[in-house]
Amino acid sequence: MVAQDAHDPHGNDPHAHAIHAHAAPTSFVRKYIFSLDHKVIGLQYYFLALTAVFVGMFLSLLMRIHMIWPTANLPLLGEIKPETYLSLLTMHGTIMVFFVLTTAPQGGFGNYFLPIQIGAPDMAFPVLNMLSFWTTFIAFVVILAAFFVTGGAPLHGWTGYAPLSALPSAGPGEQLGADLWITSIAIFCVASLMGALNFITTVLDLRAKGMTMMRMPLTVWSWFITAILGLLAFGVLLSAGILLLLDRNLGTSFYVPLVVVNGQIMGHKGGSPLLWQHLFWFFGHPEVYIAILPGMGVASQLISTFSRKPIFGYKAMVYAIMGIGFLGFMVWGHHMFMSGMSPYSAFAFSIMTMAIGVPSAIKTFNWLGTIRGGRVRFQTPMLYAIGFVSLFVSGGLSGPFLAQPVLDIPLHDTAFVVGHFHLIMGVAAIFGMFAGTYYWFPKMFGRMMNETWGRVHFFLTLAGTYAIFMPMHYLGMAGQPRRYSQFTELAYLQHLIPLNRFITYAAIVTISAQFIFVINLFWSMFKGPKASDNPWEATTLEWTTATPPPHDNFGGKTPVVYHGPYEYSVPGAPKDYVMQTDPATYPTH
Amino acid sequence: MAAFSSTVTITDQVVKDPKTGRGSGGTRPPLPGGGGGDRGGDGSSDHGERLRRTRLGLIVGLVASSMLFVSFTSVYVMRRGLPTLDDRTGGYVHDWLQVNLPTTLLLINTFLLLLSSITVELARRQITRQAALAPLRSIPGVSIGKERNFPWLGATVALGLAFLTGQWMAWRELGNRGFYLATSPSSSMIYVLTGAHALHLAGGLLVLLYAGATALRHKPVEDRRIVVDVTAWYWHFMALVWLYIFALLEFVR
Questions:
Q1: Contact A245/A237 with Cβ under 8 angstroms?
Q2: Which stretches within B23-80 are classed as H helix?
Q3: Which backbone phi and psi does B217 adopt, to 5 degrees?
Q4: Which residues of chain B fall short of a pLDDT of 50?
Q5: If you average pLDDT over residues A464-476, what whole number do you get?
Q6: Confidence check: pLDDT of A27 > 90
Q7: Cβ neighbours around A573 below 10 Å, total
């Protein structure tokens, strides 16, 4: 029995319609553009992020080309000037962090699958949900506009450190471009707050009968904790952004001290650049977990499903997510060891940062424990889940190095840091998204993605990302600074040019490999083999409903949950998996 | 209304409730405490559910809004204690000027806002009563008499507008005393904190006006009740935030 009808055997449950306050839309605009359906909104977020990731990837390609051929004359774009290089890295970081890593895992997959996985017909506030997507969309348009205004895109990096970000005279991109950048971030904050509110309320209030908190799939747990992090963090970034706009345009001095630009004394006085850094990183560090936690959820879900084993230590996994989320708010100072911080504060931040290693290790060992002894099915989604664990470990191991103030002094602002955070926050989260895409594609579009090309894509991407980011650790230890436009001119970095050239070649290959994914995605949408309702033989609620799920997710029925999310290979059960909605009992539990 | 849904509830428990008829051992039965899926199916309990959900959403939203004010407070406290380099003497000085607040005016504003908190509470109770009586009115032959309906909602909107006008006058007065946005970090923070609070209140006012407008368009009273109820709690919270801001500006100069 898949879903239980609470009231009437014909499936005409009046209550289901009562919860699902809005009827299925009929017009094209209400159905696909201003839709209230969380599934459509989820796909909108997903495709917004897909667009953004290609923009961000293109910018990184230009950066890599500029790094080894600084005077190359590119078709259409001409020669990349040093200040353009700074614009590229600013926009690459901002677009990737906000419009890809924050948008796709939470807004995309979370929107689509969180309500279904807890047995709800929709999010708690569908109109708010639509508003948060369209607000995000506006934020994306505003940030892209920064490329096209006088002076171009800002130069201050994705962290927007004042006073560079606060003074329009500080550089060409710091005029209107920087205002658009801050405005875009502020709009994005509002959108994320609305989204977080919706996610939290939905999880707390819309779970189906029997779906206790401790029966929620780990994906739901990770989206839930991510929403809490967003709720607490984005308000702070919003406040910081408002004050920055005031400093830039209305002459206040929150962040800008007495400063001289090109021999001119600026009107500001007494502001503290450190204040911006504190506020920014109080948001910025939780943001790292906002990006990575959903990937952890997906990895847990997939590793259990494809190993045909219950997740090792479900409760430990839940508490580890909470622990990571909690500690994530205690460590923002580790980004500021070089900014002039009391050694006592640095010590405290250092200890807290290394403490995050504990819940992270719990998760890693539980993933490995789940795979061990399982009958593992190495299909594409599972490959990406394992790839996620691999990148999470590789990127995570350099964390304790950077967490120590003494080691951070030489490594800060070098390529070592770039390698570290791209592995753990960038590519690991992207692997979580790939895993989610290959895993949920059959449910979203009713067809399977091509398995062979999926594997080719996986191995090229895995090898490619390691080839790009692993050498960066070495470059950093050899003293190559990040954010330098023309390091090829520096004598002491000459011997690092061949390695940099290798990284650029690897980036070109890896970026090219992503077209395999995009072609596979769109080709399979129309031409892939038809998928059954539960192609991976998984247990959670999205696999009990039709493919693709109907407007109210369960076709007028209300699912009732009897089991935890990871009951695989239960002795006595007729199959090697027990659906969460299976009312049968099995003696050994 | 439980009476109307009793039949449904009984059917629920006997036939469909998965807690009954479980065998020994094995799977744990579904526990209560799930979401809305296990409630009765008639209209009024659906309204109760939506009310509860919207209130929950409000609480979550207020956490986000609090973080904004917490963040501004930390800027206030940190910037206040920060010495700055003086370009004339080369020494460190404090550029945090003590602002002479128009305290009397702000006390009047505080009184108006607290009064509006009372009126919005009366509006909330009024519409709660109306919503509770709505099902009775639809029964033919039942008359529950005329009610005196004081326009508490309108009174709240008027008091809210009076408060915002009062705040605007306070900003004018600060300007007359020579404290503009960029004069000193202390005056910057005063404008930022009171401005953020005024924007929050203006948002609440818009929602109250929306509730009034839907009353004219004869929307179901239960729908309006949810809007008014949640906005009332929001309004109370914003009154508390104002007391907090006022105390901060008055006592931590």
A1: no
A2: 43-80
A3: -90, 15
A4: 1-43
A5: 97
A6: no
A7: 16
Distance CA(A141)–CA(A139), nearest Å, equals 5
A33-37, A77-81, A183-187 — most confident range: A183-187
Task: Report the alpha-carbon distance of residue A435 to residue A388 in Å, rounded.
Answer: 8
Nearest to A189 by CA among A263, A138, A152, A255: A138
Answer whether B60 touches A (CB < 8 Å): yes
CB atoms within 10 A of CB B253: 13
CB contact under 8 A, A270 and B95: yes
Calculate helix-pair angle for B103-137, B221-251, nearest 10 degrees.
Answer: 160
CA distance A93 to chain B (A): 24
Question: What are the Cα distances from residue A577, in Å, to A392, A539, A560, B194?
Answer: 28, 7, 17, 58
| pLDDT at A142 (0 to 100) | 97
The percentage of chain A sitting over the pLDDT mark of 70, rounded to a whole number, equals: 96
Q: Distance (Å) from the C-alpha of residue B96 to the closest C-alpha of chain A?
A: 9
Name the band, by pLDDT with cuts 50, 70 and 90, for residue A495.
very high
CB contact under 8 A, A561 and B26: no
ipTM for the assembly: 0.90
Tokens of A350: 């250092």
Instruction: Answer positive or negative: Cα dihedral of A450, A452, A453, A458.
Output: positive
Please report the DSSP string for A56-119 in residue order: HHHHHHHHHHHHH-TT-EETTTEEPPHHHHHHHHHHHHHIIIIIIITIIIIIIIIHHHHHHHTT
Q: Are A392 and A424 in contact (CB under 8 A)?
A: yes
Which structure tokens are listed for B222?
């239960």
pLDDT given at position B19: 36
The residues, ordered by sequence, that sit 6+ positions from A511 with a Cβ below 8 Å of its Cβ are A57, A60, A61
| pLDDT, tens digit, 9 for 90 and up, residues A72-107 | 899 888 899 999 999 999 999 999 999 999 999 999
- Count Cβ atoms within 10 A of the Cβ of residue A390 and give its class: 0-12 exposed, 13-18 middle, 19 or more buried: middle
Residues of B in contact with A567 (CB under 8 A): none
Q: Which of A301, A320, A130, A114 is nearest to A205 (CA)?
A: A114
B41–A6 C-beta distance less than 8 A: yes
**Does B80 contact chain A (CB < 8 Å)?**
no
Contact A271 B192 (CB under 8 A): no
Cβ contact, residue pair B185, A210, below 8 Å: no
Reduce the DSSP state of residue A316 to 3 states and report it: helix
Q: CA of B1: how far to CAs of A111, B45, B131, B237, in Å? A: 33, 6, 11, 29
Interface test with A, best of B67, B69, B197, B234 (most A CBs within 10 A): B67
- How far apart, in whole angstroms, are the C-alpha atoms of residue A63 and residue A49? 21
Partners of B53 on chain A (C-beta within 8 Å) are 124, 201, 205-206
Amino acid letter at A443? K
Look up the pTM and report it: 0.91
Q: Which residues contact B39 (CB under 8 A, 6 or more apart)?
A: A15, B45, B46, B49
β-strand A264-265 against A260-261: which pairing, if any? antiparallel
Distance between CA atoms of B121 and A514, rounded to whole angstroms?
A: 58
| B6 neighbourhood in chain A, CB within 8 Å | none
CB contact under 8 A, A206 and B36: yes
**C-beta atoms of B67 and A240 within 8 A:** no
Q: Are A128 and A58 in contact (CB under 8 A)?
A: no
- Which candidate, A237, A134, A167, A94, places its Cα nearest to that of B71? A237
Q: Which helix (H) or strand (E) holds A261?
A: strand A260-261
Tell me the chain A residues in contact with residue B222 when contact means C-beta distances shorter than 8 Å: none
CA distances (Å), origin A579, targets A210, A448, A467, A547: 13, 21, 41, 16
